[in-house]
Task: structure prediction
Amino acid sequence: MSFMNSMQEKMEATLVPLAAKINGQRHVAAVRDAFTLAFPMTLAGSIIVLINYAILSPDGFIAKLLHLGAIFPHLADYQALLSPVLNGTANIMSILIVFLTAYKLAETNQGDKVLAAVTSVGVFFIIYPPYVATKDGAQALSTGFLGAQGLFVALIIGLLVGEFLPRLQKNY
Result:
């Protein structure tokens, strides 16, 4: 038996049970399941980002490599066609994750799943940064933290609401 095989067996003997214990922890499992359920949306958004910025952008890598700007003179105009898909997938990631994390954790805690999920979205928007003024003086919600920028806060809110709302329901 070589040194590498013996080291691998020792690492498996210690790390696999630890990883299994961490994976079975309900908060980690809720976050894992939330990201697993949101993965198709993430994948769709990632593919659209790739198409928009590598192929349809005139200074994108593939567009430059294949000289697509010379073949299609208004190549950048086609980016606008796929932007709504990007807005509906990757740019709402925090809302999906806060909803799904609270849902999965409330499910584990035998609470009302939908109530916890909807409440977590409400709490997320309560904590969300303040509104910004538009050109006409109206107030609007900035989309800056709805995507990947707001994931950490979304996870914390989803875990807190998913943990405490089922406990409050049991006491009611």
